[in-house]
Amino acid sequence: MLFTLWLGLFVPLLGFLVLMASSRILNRTITGIIGCTTIFVSFACFISLFLAFTGNSLDPFTAKLYSWIPVRGINADFSLHIDSLSLLMTLIITGVGFLIHVYSNGYMDHDEDIVRYFAFMNLFVFFMLLLVLASNLVLLFVGWEGVGLASYLLIGYWYEKPVAAQAAVKAFVMNRIGDLGFLLGLLLTFYLFGTSDIVEISNLAGSKFASGDSILTVLTLLLFVGAVGKSAQLPLYTWLPDAMAGPTPVSALIHAATMVTAGVYLVVRLHALYILAPITLLVISIIGAATALYAAICAVGQTDLKRVLAYSTVSQLGFMFLACGCADFYAAMFHLTMHAFMKALLFLSAGNVVHMMHDTTEMSKMGGLSKVFVKTNWMFLIGVLAMSGVPPFAAFFSKDLILEQEHLAGYNTLFYIGLIAAIFTAFYLTRAYCLTFTGQFRMSSEELKTVKEAPSVMLIPVAVLTVLSIIGGFLGYSFGKIPLLEEFLAKSEVTLAVPQPAEGMFSSPDVWMSILGGLFGIALAVYMYTGLKGAFPSPLEFLRRTFYVDEIYSAVIVQPLEALSRFVANVFEPKVFDGGIQISVQATQGIAGVLQRVQSGQIRSYIAWIVLGSVFLIMYLLP
Amino acid sequence: MDITLTIFFSMAMFTIGLIGVLAKRNALVFFLSIELLFNAANLLFVAFARQWGNEIGLAWVFFVLVVSAAEAAVGLAIIINLFRSKQIIDIDQYNVLKG
User: Where are the domains of chain A?
Assistant: First the structure.
């Protein structure tokens, strides 16, 4: 079992090294095969671990490879922790990751530098696995920064495009702000617990701190700042919509299914700490609810298909944090899993359209595409319905579980905010679907001739994700029994704050409100955005510009910083630095000017100096 | 025998040599004055060697003689070359090392 674990972790890294080392000699097909095989091997390894785990022949364990930082108070080993939570994450990463790798073979078929692409994708999977498997916070931080690096490299994959390069830098810098919080939290953990081991910390927390301890609140808030950056929550979300400048499979894997959920994973992984800090939980749920609603409203105003999905991701991550904030960690993980399926499905089927339309992402050029993309049309539609919370698809179960738990726990305001966000979710996704696939063509007939349905290498992974989005919800719902996923995650003590009511879901009025809300959103969007006869409705300007948040950040932070930099460059540096150096230069030259008169070139004057010196020396030495 | 007179004579010789070195501009006289300085020191060596009956002082005299002979050879060669370059024997004119 240990060998399987290490194999599963290191095969993607091996794939990265092999691809990078032999990038010149590999052709396109072999590159694709290597890139996908490594992830598949990894997936198979974790499946076998999963089977052993559910078959009760394996208990949660920690496997140590070597002693990494054997310093007292830190004691970070290179060791992995296997329990149901990390296993679930590894299955999502490698499973969805494998499908996206296969899909990439089709999506990147016009790209020259495909080796670099697959190498970075494999590197990303390795770091993501390291992040979720790490048994201590230091190693987790390595994975955390590693996925940030891979994300930077892949957003900027088309680095010739200035937009992509800028988006990559933006993502990196925004994440750095969050990572500072994480790093401070890490240092505080060493100080408070004297160890970085997650299991030990979780065990110590209850006995060491009372609920509501202020230092624990500070610690959890600092770690949450890291999660805010990585998971693109308010106010650090602006990098995620810009990150859509990368290839679409990258958006699907990194910026929808896996990396951005690392923040949620972190909070769930350390739930033993968070439960003891009610103030932090309140902050988390407020930020989550605000982000869910805000991003959902912003998504309504987007004209770029991928940006709609990006804001949708931000919004759904907000839902997950909303669940975390009410201590419903199971609901958060359930929604995370379902979201990974659905958002990967939406991104990849959108990618079909984008790719076959020669990298057009603007919905104003689309419209009526259901006649061309017959299969993609159905799969995207299922993704939209699933995400909108239409039963019996995936998000119906997960999102309603979150909303219902809010209500049961008594957070009525948060419940209604979540409900409104859910209605907006249904609305903007249906809007995106209608503008893209229904109505009349918005491009000329010559252009239309070059567009056809995507090849099967792209369709099959999307079809698998479609099936998962349809039936996935039943992982978390079963008639009258404890759901499979809940039972599985309960082994890691990832549970609900208020157990699900025994009478099941459909009896509660909240569920009906949420279903009707979703249907209302869908109906409204269908009413507004079908029958447009080829015209493209331009959204409200302040929605399209997302309440001018980017402009506000630019005015409040970026431009003052640039002004300061200019001041330093144009005034401070020439006057203070160069001026200071000039003073010392002139002083040296002045002293040298006086001293060089002594060196007259006259031998007799030198002798006179020697005599004078000797006389003084003799007078000094004489007793 | 009292060496006071010898010491005074040596001091006078040294002073004359020093004044010559400092005041004379003619390179040959300058050089001659340096020899005076050497020999003032030699005289003292001899006088003190005799006073204390210590032959080390005499040995030093021979060292000084050898060094001054070598110095005379090198110094005269330099003076000849200086004269060849400028046709001037006044050492104040040779100040190319001025800072």
Answer: 570-621
Close Cβ partners of A386 (under 8 Å, ≥ 6 residues apart): A338, A342, A345, A393, A394, A395, A396, A469, A470
pLDDT for A497-521, tens place per residue? 777 654 555 567 777 888 888 888 8
Contact A607 B21 (CB under 8 A): yes
Predicted ipTM of the assembly: 0.84
* Tokens standing for residue A108: 């990147």
Query: What are A271-302's pLDDT values in tens digits?
Result: 888 888 889 999 999 999 999 999 998 888 88
- Specify the pTM: 0.79
Closest residue of chain A to B34, computed from CA coordinates: A607
In a domain, residue B98? The reply is no
Nearest to B95 among A600, A607, A611 (CB): A600
Cross-chain CB nearest to A599 (options B18, B94, B99): B99
Number of independent structural domains in chain B? 1
Length of chain B, please?
Answer: 99
CB contact (8 A) between residue B25 and residue A604: yes
- Rounded to the nearest angstrom, the minimum Cα separation between A183 and chain B is 60
Residues of B with CB under 8 A from a CB of A: 18, 21-22, 25, 30, 91-92, 94-99
Question: Nearest CA to CA, how far is B91 from chain A (Å)?
Answer: 8
Q: B45: domain range?
A: 4-93
CA–CA dist A190, A297 (Å, integer): 41
- End-to-end CA distance of chain B: give it in Å, rounded: 52
State the pLDDT confidence band at A456, using cuts at 50, 70 and 90: confident
Q: Do A243 and A188 form a contact (C-beta atoms < 8 A)?
A: no
Reduce the secondary structure of B19-54 to three states and give it as a string. Answer: HHHHHCCEHHHHHHHHHHHHHHHHHHHHHHHHHHCC
Of B91, B96, B98, the CB nearest to A604: B91
Position B24 in a domain: yes
Give the distance from CA A121 to its chain's centroid. Answer: 14
Indicate which CATH number applies to the domain containing B37.
1.10.287.3510
Residue A605 Cα, gap to closest chain B Cα (Å)? 8
Question: Token digits for A282?
Answer: 């309140």
Residue A324 is encoded by which pair of tokens? 């975390």
Residue B34 domain flag: yes
Q: Say if B28 falls within a structural domain.
A: yes
At residue A585, φ and ψ (nearest 5 deg) are -65, -45
